[in-house]
Amino acid sequence: MKTLQHLLAMIRFSHTLFALPFAALAAVMAWTTPPPADARVSFTWWQPLGLLICMVGARSAAMAFNRIADRRWDAQNPRTSGRHLPTGVLSVRQVSVFTAASALAFVAGTLCFWPNWLPLAGALPVLLFLFGYSYAKRYTAWSHFWLGAALMLAPVCTWIALRGPILLGDVSDLLPAVLLGTAVLLWVAGFDMIYACQDAEFDVRNGLHSVPARWGVVGALRWAAVCHAGMVVALGALPVLAPQLALGWIYGTGITAVAGLLLCEHWLVTPDDLTRVNVAFFHINAVVSLGLFVVTTVDLLT
Known about the structure:
Layout: H1 2-10, H2 20-32, H3 46-69, H4 71-76, H5 84-87, H6 92-109, H7 118-136, H8 143-167, H9 175-196, H10 200-205, H11 211-241, H12 249-268, H13 277-301
Helix pairs in contact: 2-3, 2-8, 2-13, 3-6, 3-7, 6-7, 7-8, 8-9, 9-11, 9-13, 11-12, 12-13
């Protein structure tokens, strides 16, 4: 039991709520959007269970794999040297077993959507893409967008899992999920740039790549602001380009609130004061994801 507690702490299990609300929101969107007249989609009670298993399994596997891949850098970085692998609290073997078990759980979760075979067929490519992020920082400063794309898969894959039969005949049905996913990609890339400002000097010294390492903290905060402005634009485009969702003023109020929270995030973190990065990263972003889910779900259901 103690080992499991350490494993869950290592992957910051509670931070699953960053991506899970967007997967849940995509599910509500998929369930409430009428299918074309000639299409048939069946929704079952075990689909939400499958979504939960897939989300938790995929994120747990990706985070655990990332800790294995980065253990040498983590040991050298004063900010991360106290993590479970560098300190020996957990062994590479234990984390590897946990990674494999989480990946298998993810694959098993895709069976909840059968006879829609698309989730099962895409399980391995999705895992490989998630694992690939762990090495992106070694080669490109744009690794933040890789992380954003990884979380973008949450709403997009949820939509595919629930409306696969429609997509096989009409790919344009995927548009609402792509718009929501684009917002997620830009949101994650932006706050990851802010978070990476803490390691800008370490990255430069060790030949690692990131936006703060390449353009400095000031440049990174500007790039993050551009990304977050893009997120608001993508969210605003959702009711315009996907009118079938019938989103109204409640959703509009939610977008306004998200914009305000993002402004607050950029007000908290300045080039001269990075001490409030964790507050901006964890607290504000948790409110953004959960709040947008609640507000949009209320709009969709009313």
